[in-house]
Design brief:
Number of domains: 2
Largest sheet: 9 strands, mixed
Organism: Streptomyces salyersiae
CATH topology of the largest domain: Peroxisomal Thiolase, Chain A, domain 1
Structural class: alpha/beta
Distance between the termini: 42 Å
Number of helices: 10
Shape: globular
Protein name: 3-oxoacyl-[acyl-carrier-protein] synthase III C-terminal domain-containing protein
Order of helices and strands: EEHHEHEHEHEEEHHEHHHEE
Keywords: Acyltransferase, Cytoplasm, Transferase
CATH architecture of the largest domain: 3-Layer(aba) Sandwich
Number of strands: 11
Length: about 375
């Protein structure tokens, strides 16, 4: 979808905990050395007992400080959209309203957005629609946060595609002013592939209610066994869906991949990053955010915005640069957006440089 009105990012923020090095994880017996070498990952961010909504609050406050410098106040906001890929707190409770209370503290709507790891890009698109439809408010706050430090999740071995990481990100989507202009946003799904994230598991009762772990490798193994026994594999290749959707969003933005300065993508491990994004788009890792994400891990829906903030605050993105935000999630679905940087960062360098950390025993 081409964005006809002037929609911008007026602020962006993040909060990331200390990193735990993958070499340390191998030494402690949490992670296999062969998997570490194949993944290319150097570290994963681990938050311990800090609740995910609190990380979202911290990220949102950083984004709001930046948007305030652009002239936005709490009364300018018409909504808060919060994204999560894992459980946020007590059943029957609203994490979005917790984030709202501790940030804007205004009587506006607050909602939780899916699906999964492309949630913030879905929220970006919804924010653009809302701002176009309702001229009474000039901004929407979008947030995302997850904490996988729970007994039923093995962040090191739940998937070969990524290492689950904790953290939060936020952005202010607005009219009038901002450091980046939204040119286009698009998404597409391949519903025939939805089984990949549930294979071998029953729908009811939900696995978490009976103590099942979050284990994508078990589900992949179930599918492979079925295909080896003669079951039909899906005819759709998800890389083709990614390439087609990126082509469309670039065309709608009036640009091409050769004009894009950087790609801010999901924090996949090396092999998954190549197979899902780099090879279908025929681009090199240096064009993406690999050197940043390999020291962070996969922070759910936050990944593209964490990378965007890192590159922008670090001076790697300057006015005139075009940026592609790209994420994929269960469904299977892909979402992307094209931004044009319109202002440099005036408040210092990237807030989360790679640094060492010591894991606790309960961080496994």
């Amino acid at each position: 979808m081409r964005i006809a009105s002037d929609i911008r990012l007026a602020g962006i923020g993040s909060w990331l905990p200390e990193p735990v090095g993958t070499e340390e994880a191998v030494a402690r017996g949490w992670y296999a050395e062969a998997d570490r070498e194949a993944s290319g990952m150097r570290a994963v961010r681990i938050a311990g007992e800090l609740p995910a909504p609190e990380m979202a609050v911290r990220a949102a406050r950083a984004a709001l400080r930046r948007s305030a410098a652009a002239g936005f106040a709490a009364d300018d906001f018409g909504a808060l959209l919060h994204c999560a890929t894992y459980h946020q707190g007590p059943d029957g409770w609203s994490a979005p309203h917790y984030v709202l209370r501790h940030t804007l503290d205004r009587p506006v709507t607050a909602a939780q957005i899916g699906p999964g790891c492309l949630g913030m890009l879905a929220a970006l698109e919804l924010s653009a629609h809302r701002l176009a439809a309702d001229p009474s408010k000039d901004a929407v706050l979008i947030t995302s946060a997850d904490n996988f430090s729970v007994p039923v999740v093995d962040r090191w071995n739940s998937s070969k595609l990524f290492l689950l990481a904790d953290g939060g990100a936020a952005a202010v989507v607005a009219r009038r002013e901002g450091f980046a202009r939204l040119l286009s946003v698009a998404s597409a799904s391949a519903p025939v592939l939805e089984e990949q994230h549930r294979a071998g598991e029953q729908l009811f009762p939900p696995g978490i209610t009976v103590g099942r772990s979050l284990n994508f490798e078990e589900r992949n193994a179930h599918l492979k066994r079925r295909w080896e026994q003669g079951g039909a594999a899906p005819a759709v290749h998800f890389g083709d869906v990614v390439a087609d959707t990126v082509d469309r969003v670039l065309e709608e933005a009036g640009t091409g991949l050769e004009k894009v300065a950087r790609i801010c993508h999901t924090g996949y491990a090396r092999r998954a990053l190549h197979g899902i994004y780099l090879a279908p788009l025929d681009v090199e890792p240096s064009m993406g955010s690999w050197e940043f994400s390999r020291d962070v891990g996969h922070v759910g829906a936050a990944d593209p915005f964490l990378a965007l903030e890192h590159l922008w605050t670090g001076g790697e993105l300057v006015p005139g640069d075009q940026v592609l935000l790209l994420a994929a999630g269960p469904g299977m679905e892909v979402a992307c957006a094209v931004l044009e940087i319109t202002a440099g960062c005036a408040d210092g360098t990237a807030p989360h440089p790679p640094h060492g950390g010591t894991p606790k025993e309960d961080d496994r």
